TrEMBL record, chain B:
This is Aspartyl/glutamyl-tRNA(Asn/Gln) amidotransferase subunit C. It catalyses: L-aspartyl-tRNA(Asn) + L-glutamine + ATP + H2O = L-asparaginyl-tRNA(Asn) + L-glutamate + ADP + phosphate + 2 H(+); L-glutamyl-tRNA(Gln) + L-glutamine + ATP + H2O = L-glutaminyl-tRNA(Gln) + L-glutamate + ADP + phosphate + H(+). Belongs to the GatC family. It comes from the Bacteria. Gene3D superfamilies: Glu-tRNAGln amidotransferase C subunit, N-terminal domain (1.10.20.60). Its EC number is 6.3.5.-. Heterotrimer of A, B and C subunits. Allows the formation of correctly charged Asn-tRNA(Asn) or Gln-tRNA(Gln) through the transamidation of misacylated Asp-tRNA(Asn) or Glu-tRNA(Gln) in organisms which lack either or both of asparaginyl-tRNA or glutaminyl-tRNA synthetases. The reaction takes place in the presence of glutamine and ATP through an activated phospho-Asp-tRNA(Asn) or phospho-Glu-tRNA(Gln).
């Protein structure tokens, strides 16, 4: 077994049994990054080899003393949206091209405390705004999967596309992602891995570069559902530096996987049967329903009547929060500065040249919907519709324990497709956005390939703070699907 | 309601994003397309529905009004694009 092909759970067992060292594990990943990252562009920054190996050696020492933490010695990628002390953090934006934070985000600090070995900072859509990883100032990420008999460059999804590509291709055992409207789940589905967006408030947002603060949530991107539980356990927990952080106890999430799902009620929301859904996705969804029924779940038809308004609501609320959050990039206190004779001129030139087109458009959209005369018609209206969307979920969860839906309306598409019309691109998030709006946890599990050989995922959505049931059902789905396919480009191919 | 060029210019000014005239029309079209699409929300009846602020899963907490951080001037200034001693520098703003 190649070291780059392990799950976190397998690697941890191997390290604990001293079958291999954390140094060997780290070195195998650095080698894989050296071979494949030029092609995939999954990492914006790879940490210096001596630093990675020093962290691995420290982990080996802890294993020798029997003091290993939850993530000890496990090499992971960190989305370049999490501030890492002394390590360049760009948000894939030119405006932060040389930003070196003097502090560590709460989530990455927790992972370091648990013994994780950071390999580098993974690529993303600029400021996490995008669904295809084509808006990064550091170049697009390539999906390691290819269509059968077709060499077209496919997108890895977004915004956590670098994390998804790295985990799929064996350039990290797991990676952190962030999800605002689907940015963990959709790339996980496009790259054939597991992605979990926890309940809003489960993971601290402190030190994670903000996009839309009422939606942003960090979560794990892994190769198995049990790994997602393990890594979430290390990432989650109360943080007084984030006023929306939850102080509920953090359960042992990984123990939820493998628990019987017999008797659980699984809701199938009628409104997710979108017109024009590809036949293969509809079929796979039916298959998922059948698998859960065989596992002893009771399947119930439910209705979430405001689903169709989720995207439009999102594309008012998220840009509004983005315009407010990104006001801080003024070229004065940090980030790149463009010179101009006046202070206003500095702001305007710094922001025009520092932000890419998609980010500029979202800031402008947000500024518009928050401006005098339009606030009530757009922003306030969207906040009210958001209440209705959340009520839909709360009411559905009075009847059922989880919901099962497809993760995305298509498999990975080619670079250059869906690019001209922003609304067309936004439709990628049609199945992921509603759970974000409601703040409920949602998991994407790879369950099969389409006729062109590309992975497809199903999404399990649960009650607020009930990630455990989501993980149990995800585990059942994973066991039934037995997804073991590998992408064309991965560390074990052609070595 | 269609977005005009003057409003687009005003929005860019409010957002402090310096756009050339040539870019303005392109931005206007993109925003106008999105605004036309989000107009579908006008068909939703929100009579008596309160706005959702945040995700309302946790109540806001209070804490003691004490200093919890500080004495890190050099760390903060380390990120400044331009500085002079312990200060950020900007162009003269008062004539």
């Amino acid at each position: 077994m190649m070291l780059t092909g392990l799950t976190l759970t397998e690697a941890r067992a191997g390290l604990a049994a001293r079958k291999f060292s954390a140094r060997e594990l780290a070195q195998a990943h650095l080698d894989a990054i050296g071979r494949l990252n030029t092609q995939l562009n999954a990492y914006i920054t790879v940490l210096p080899e001596q630093d990675v190996l020093a962290a691995a050696d420290a982990a080996d020492a802890r294993y020798a003393k029997g003091e290993a933490g939850l993530m000890d010695g496990l090499p992971v990628g960190v989305k370049d949206l999490f501030c890492t002390k002394g390590v360049k953090t760009t948000a894939a934006s030119k405006i932060l091209a040389n930003f070196v934070p003097p502090y560590e985000s709460s989530v990455t600090a927790r992972l370091l405390d648990a013994g994780a070995v950071f390999l580098g900072k993974t690529n993303l859509d600029e400021f996490a705004m995008g669904s295809a990883n084509i808006t990064s100032a550091f170049g697009s990420v390539l999906n390691p999967w290819k269509r059968k008999g077709d060499d077209a460059a496919l997108v890895p999804g977004g915004s956590s596309g670098g994390s998804a590509a790295a985990v799929a291709a064996g350039l990290a055992l797991a990676a952190t992602g962030t999800d605002t409207g689907g940015s963990i789940r959709q790339p996980a589905a496009f790259c054939g891995i597991v992605g979990l967006k926890p309940t809003y408030g489960r993971c601290s947002r402190w030190g994670t570069i903000a996009f839309a603060s009422s939606l942003d949530q960090a979560g794990p991107m892994t190769r198995s559902v049990a790994d997602a539980g393990l890594m979430l356990e290390a990432m989650a927990g109360f943080d007084e530096k984030d006023s929306t952080s939850s102080n509920r106890p953090v359960p042992e999430f990984s123990k939820a996987v493998g628990k019987s799902v017999k008797g659980l009620r699984v809701g199938i929301p009628a409104e997710y049967r979108a017109p024009g859904m590809p036949e293969e996705i509809a079929r796979l969804w039916e298959q998922g329903i059948a698998w859960l029924r065989e596992a002893g779940c009771e399947v119930v038809d439910v209705s979430l009547p405001h689903t169709k308004y989720g995207l439009a609501t999102y594309y008012i609320i998220a840009p509004a929060e983005c315009s407010s959050n990104l006001a801080r990039y003024d070229g004065i206190r940090f980030g790149e500065r463009q010179d101009a004779p006046t202070l206003d001129g500095i702001y305007e030139r710094t922001r025009a040249e520092g932000f890419g087109q998609e980010v500029r458009n979202r800031i402008l959209m947000g500024t518009y919907v928050l401006s005098a005369g339009y606030y009530d018609a757009y922003y306030l209206k969207a906040q009210k519709v958001r209440t209705l969307i959340k009520r839909d979920f709360v009411q559905a969860f009075e009847q059922v324990d989880v919901l099962l839906t497809p993760t995305a309306p298509s498999a990975a598409f080619a670079q250059g497709e869906n690019m001209d019309d922003p609304v067309q691109m936004y439709l990628n998030d049609i199945f992921t956005v509603p759970a974000s709006m409601a703040g409920v946890p949602a998991l994407s599990v790879p369950v099969g390939l389409d006729s062109r050989g590309l992975p497809l995922g199903l999404q399990i959505i649960g009650r607020h703070f009930d990630e455990e049931t989501v993980l149990s059902v995800g585990g059942a789905l994973e066991a039934a699907a037995g997804f073991a396919h590998k992408p064309t480009l991965h560390a074990e191919a052609g070595v | 309601m269609s977005l005009d060029l003057a409003t687009t210019r005003r929005i860019a000014k409010l957002a402090r994003i310096g756009l050339e005239d040539a870019e303005l029309e392109n931005v206007r079209q993109k925003l106008d397309g999105i605004l036309g699409w989000v107009d579908q929300l006008s068909e939703v009846d929100v009579e008596g529905v309160p706005p959702m602020v945040g995700t309302e899963t946790e109540a806001l907490r209070q804490r003691e009004d004490v200093v919890t951080d500080g004495n890190c001037r050099d760390a903060i200034l380390s990120c400044a694009p331009e500085k002079s001693g312990p200060f950020y520098t900007v162009p003269k703003v008062v004539e």
